[in-house]
Design brief:
alpha/beta; 7-stranded mixed beta sheet; two-stranded antiparallel ribbon; 6 helices
Length: about 220
């Protein structure tokens, strides 16, 4: 299956489950203390570098976008799923949300103080990940920061059912060292790397360890 076909399936799957997904996580804006710690640290870095706009790429119903806004960032969201964007706009009418594909972001060069890819690159096919990271670097201002969160592993997980709906959704688990290598190839300097073991969140045990990488576009 081509990368374009996989992105099509991802969009269709999230359109189908968007309402159920938003309802399930409605009372859990960012419920994990480790997530909150990483995002708070990221917000501090963005402010220290000049506090430019922050794109939450793969924003879903806008939970993380809203959290970043609450931390004082000029945050907006982009998602592949039009239905997710509709829900995000309704939940956060004060914020901006757009439909867009991660491997081909239509953002001006050097326009962002930060990029957040919070469990969203997990749906990007391997062959499109280098271009995705290159796009992040292009959109970041010199000195701007990127944070990427993802599941650790070697084998992808393919789901044909989610939240009571038939779907076709691929979750790509990756090794932190490989993701860091791809970020470096794109011209981004990784300076924070956090790994943690699976936890029970919202009544469900995570399947894999989790990773957070923070990278920076060099200033020179």
């Amino acid at each position: 299956m081509s990368g374009a076909d996989q992105l099509r399936d991802t969009r269709a799957s999230y359109d189908v489950i968007a309402d159920a997904y938003a309802e399930r996580f409605r009372d859990e804006p960012v419920g994990n203390p480790w997530d909150r710690a990483v995002l708070t640290g990221f917000a501090d870095l963005v402010r220290a570098a000049g506090n430019g706009p922050v794109a939450d790429v793969g924003c879903g119903p806008g939970r993380v976008t809203g959290y970043l806004h609450g931390l004082g960032l000029d945050a907006f969201g982009i998602d592949l799923s039009p239905r997710m964007v509709e829900i995000a706009r309704r939940a956060h009418p004060e914020l901006r949300f757009e439909v867009g594909a991660m491997p081909d972001l239509e953002l001006p060069d050097a326009s962002l103080g930060g990029v957040v890819a919070w469990y969203s690159t997990i749906h990007v096919p391997d062959d499109l990940l280098p271009a995705t990271f290159a796009g992040f670097r292009r959109a970041l201002m010199p000195g701007g920061h990127l944070v990427v969160a993802f599941q650790i592993g070697d084998e992808p997980l393919h789901l044909t059912e989610g939240l009571g709906h038939p779907i076709s959704l691929e979750f790509r688990r990756r090794r932190p060292e490989r993701v860091a290598e791809l970020l470096a190839d794109a011209g981004l300097e990784v300076h924070v790397r956090v790994e943690r073991e699976p936890e029970i969140l919202a009544g469900h045990r995570e399947r894999t360890p989790q990773a957070y990488l923070v990278a920076r576009r060099p200033t020179d």
